[in-house]
Amino acid sequence: MWQHGCRVLVRLHGGLSRRPSPSWPPPPSPCRPPDRGGGVKAKAARWRRARRKLSCSRAFAGERTMASHTYDKASAAMCAFLFLVVLALARANEKQPELDVKQLYVPEVCEVKSKVGDQLTMHYVGTLQDGTKFDSSIDRDQPFSFQLGVGQVIKGWDQGLTDMCVGEKRKLVIPPELGYGEKGAGNVIPGGATLHFEVELINISDSPPSTNVFKEIDADSDNQLSREEVSSMVSVYLRKQMLDAEQSGASNSDEVKKMLADHDKLVEEIFQHEDTDKNGFISYEEFSGPKHDEL
User: Which residues lie in Pro residues bias regions (predicted)?
Assistant: First the structure.
């Protein structure tokens, strides 16, 4: 009956094709076939429809499960990537310790500038953040000599005294990371202290052969330093400092005497800093002072 109606409709519209438009009526969904009605055939159609519906539901559920797994994997990968990005940004934004170097005086003539490996002779005055003076070579009237860039002094000095002219004066503001850190230095410099130095370069010379301090302290040559060996070295060093201070009339002789009286405590502080594995000895690898014989 409906076929006859379609033929009549085509005749009425003349130019229309006898074939139905491909877009209308819409093709039946494989999951929902049209219900054509009628007895046994209708029951068979309903049975087939229910079967297809179940099949489609399972297929849809499978696709959804696969999509969920895919989403979970992509989400996990994205989270991991974002974590790495955030971690990298956090590290990049970490505040690095900054050394503040100001030139107070620069001579007009500067033929030679300091470089790593040079032997420098300096005058200096060291103060804490609140202005408390903790050391001064000027008060002792005894310049300080060291080799630049080999770890004989704190990092702030090794980094802040390069490219310096003889006669030049500088002010260094050294954060604790480039100074004595969170442990400080004895009773003179507290932990976490920012150090202020006013320095003057007196002389630049070729570096003399470095003394192997480790070998000098290691009296029994067992390649490790005991408390007795370190105590002996500290005692000899402090006595020499006290003698030099008394001969020069320096004002810090009382301070050296106090350090000599408390030299056991100083030895303990040395072991706290140097004996990293806490076995009661300072090994060659742990020792941070000069320990290489140089030609």
Answer: 22-32
202: closest CA among 158, 169, 162, 250? 169
Domain count of the chain?
2
Instruction: Write down the pTM of the prediction.
Output: 0.47
d(CA 194, CA 165): 25
Distance CA 50, CA 55 (A): 9
The C-alpha atoms of residue 43 and residue 56 are separated, in whole angstroms, by: 20
Mean pLDDT of the chain: 74
In this structure, is residue 228 part of a structural domain?
A: yes
Tell me if 75 is assigned to some domain. no
The string of pLDDT tens digits covering residues 85-121 is 444 555 545 556 789 999 999 999 998 999 998 999 9
Non-local CB neighbours of 133 within 8 Å, separated by 6+ positions: 125, 126, 127
Examine residue 72 and state whether it is found in any structural domain, yes or no.
Answer: no
Q: Which of 154, 170, 205 is the last residue in one of the domains?
A: 205
Active site residues: 124, 134-135, 154, 180, 197
Model confidence band, residue 167 (pLDDT cutoffs 50, 70, 90) = very high
pLDDT at 284: 85
Range of the domain at 109: 100-205
Which residue, 144, 175, 205, sits at the end of a domain? 205
**Are residues 114 and 201 located together in one domain of the fold?**
yes
- CA-derived radius of gyration, the chain: 43
Is 194 in the same domain as 237? Answer: no
